[in-house]
Design goal:
The structure is a single chain. This protein is an alpha/beta fold and 278 residues long. It is 28% helix and 20% strand. A seven-stranded mixed beta sheet has the order 1-7-6-2-3-4-5, with no helix packed on it. Strands 9-8-10-11 form a four-stranded parallel beta sheet, with helices on both faces.
């Protein structure tokens, strides 16, 4: 017969008897959790100083303190910072490539990647910079596609010296398309690849949700495009410094390739493959 009084009530663990133990979960990147107090559900994008950043399916970001108050598949967890080993095990570059920690930059190749302007170069650096340093690819901007012919003649592409060119607004019938076709017929055709995206400016390659828009607005031709965008967003645009600050605000919202439109992603990857081909 069972003896209901036989157990020692003061034995180790008596305080935890019947208590539900909430498991600990490392806040690894892309882990989807729900914050109980607000009901906000999103994927982990960053952990820093005991704060976790979550991003929902609409691209909205929220910051929460690590600890209790989170659910995974409806079950409570204590969210903690990931261990170094776990972080290194899944480390990715901003372009989505597997990162190579502490890898030295490769000596620059003879081949180059050319883009139209400073903003294009800054965007490529932010998303693909780590990959390009590993591959030894230098990015240069040509200050407008009208300068492409002169740039190529000075660069003199050839075997082992390829030029990949990213062009804005490369659509049928545009000035950019005519310049690209001329390059394809020119003396350097075998060692030059010109590709582009359909956007008026590289600003449009950033997903509009990142700056609080559902879509990039249509700007009348009578208004300079970047000024029109700043006006639509309620940002100053009277001076060139205003335009520069507007771009920095947009660029700051770009963290990984997921913040960019696929029409740009595919073209940049194509160019990197072209200029790194042995």
């Amino acid at each position: 017969m069972d003896d209901r009084y036989s157990a020692d009530v003061l034995s180790p663990g008596w305080r935890d008897a019947g208590r539900r133990i909430i498991p600990t979960q490392e806040a690894t990147r892309d882990l989807v959790v729900e914050e109980v107090a607000t009901g906000f559900c999103g994927a982990v994008t960053r952990v820093e100083k005991k704060i976790v950043t979550l991003e929902d399916r609409h691209g909205k970001l929220r910051l929460f303190p690590l600890g209790s108050g989170f659910l995974i598949d409806g079950r409570p967890v204590n969210l903690v910072a990931p261990t170094m080993a776990a972080a290194l095990g899944r480390l990715r570059t901003a372009s989505g490539s597997t990162a190579v920690p502490n890898a030295p930059a490769r000596v620059a190749r003879a081949s180059r990647l050319f883009v139209e302007g400073r903003h294009d170069a800054e965007l490529v650096e932010k998303v693909w910079g780590a990959d390009l340093r590993i591959e030894g690819v230098v990015v240069e901007y040509i200050e407008g596609v009208d300068n492409l012919d002169e740039i190529l003649r000075k660069f003199r592409p050839g075997p082992g010296r390829r030029a990949g060119v990213l062009v804005d607004h490369l659509v049928p019938g545009s000035k950019e398309s005519r310049i690209a076709e001329a390059v394809a017929r020119g003396p350097f055709a075998a060692s030059v690849l010109v590709v582009g995206h359909p956007f008026v400016d590289v600003w449009q390659s950033v997903k509009p949700a990142r700056v609080g828009l559902t879509a990039w607005p249509t700007v009348p031709r009578s208004i300079e495009w970047k000024h029109g965008i700043c006006d639509a967003l309620g940002w100053p645009s009277e001076e060139q410094a205003d335009i520069a600050r507007a771009w920095q605000r947009i660029l700051a919202q770009v963290r990984t390739f997921a913040d960019l439109e696929p029409q740009l992603l595919g073209r940049v990857e194509q160019l990197i493959d072209f200029v790194t081909a042995e």
